[in-house]
Write a structure and sequence with these properties.
Strand order of the largest sheet: 8-17-16-12-14
Number of strands: 17
CATH class of the largest domain: Mainly Beta
Number of domains: 2
Distance between the termini: 70 Å
Oligomer: single chain
Shape: globular
Order of helices and strands: HHEEEEEEEEEEEEEEEEE
CATH architecture of the largest domain: Sandwich
Largest sheet: 5 strands, mixed
């Protein structure tokens, strides 16, 4: 009598075991139409006692890259609404995209980033709770008490940081970077890469190239624009262990640099997108 109650469960278990793995777990990939989740990454400290609160995001789309202008759909509370956040969101997860500096007396306040896309509102609250402290000594792969700085982010310079061009022209951007040679494989440094994307601006930006290895620590790309206006572009230079490599459990080792480009032309106008 007791065993008879186990038969249905056993039958379910047998059927489940016989099903292929793909029928037990189905992961849907949405190319468009999905929301964007803001992410609070944590905070670090400055010598003057102020704090940098770091944010990133998860664009759930695999292709769509929404533009969400500063305003009710892309805002911070308490104000100002514009805290330097992106208004263009490239696909998937991006960590430590930007930071907001708050004063040393920020205390127990919360800094809330809210994003609304496709009718869905998502927000995240950043705090200075000690559990969110990013200790830069131990955020690298392999770091420990004896060897705290096992890997460091590349030092990056981009020229020019600001420029103005005509709508028919391309902005030429030159990257120079140095690194500590880590991580290494088979005794050789993995090497540096650069990845360019629009951060803010009214139109479509095309980079040539958008992604490339930095030969001898240097690289050049050209950006062309579909519309006139003010743009912010961002390059991520990665040493092979960080943001571009997809190691999102760490805060190292990549460096973000932003540049401003003013594009002048027949459709010239100002935008905070």
């Amino acid at each position: 009598m007791v065993h008879s109650h186990l038969y249905p469960l056993a039958a379910v278990a047998i059927v489940a075991a016989c099903l292929p793995a793909s029928s037990q777990l189905v992961q849907l990939r949405h190319w468009s139409g999905q929301s964007i989740s803001p992410v609070y990454e944590g905070f670090d400290t400055n010598p003057d006692g102020s704090f940098n609160m770091w944010f990133g995001y998860m664009n759930r789309n695999y292709e769509e890259e929404p533009d969400v202008p500063i305003g009710p759909n892309n805002t911070f509370q308490p104000g100002p609404a514009d805290r330097g956040q992106p208004t263009h969101f490239t696909a998937r997860r991006h960590k430590d995209t930007f930071s907001v500096t708050v004063p040393k007396d920020f205390g127990e306040q919360r800094l809330v980033w809210t994003i609304t896309t496709h009718g869905k509102t998502e927000q995240v609250a950043g705090t200075l709770n000690p559990t969110w402290l990013i200790d830069r000594k131990y955020t690298t792969r392999g770091a420990n008490i004896q060897n705290p700085y096992s890997n460091t982010p590349p030092a990056v310079a981009v020229k020019p940081l600001e420029q103005a061009i005509g709508i028919s022209e391309a902005a030429r951007l030159t990257v120079a970077a140095t690194d500590d040679g880590r991580p290494a494989r088979n005794g050789k440094a993995v090497g540096l890469t650069m990845e360019w994307a629009k951060y803010r601006g009214p139109g479509i930006v095309k980079f040539e190239p958008a992604n490339a290895k930095l030969a001898d620590g240097g690289g050049t790309t050209e950006a062309s624009f579909s519309e006139a206006g003010d743009y912010v572009l961002q390059v991520v230079v990665d040493d092979g262990s960080g943001e571009v490599a997809g190691n999102f459990g760490y805060h190292c080792c990549w460096t973000n640099v932003q540049v401003k480009v003013t594009v002048k032309g027949a459709s010239d106008g100002k935008s905070k997108r």
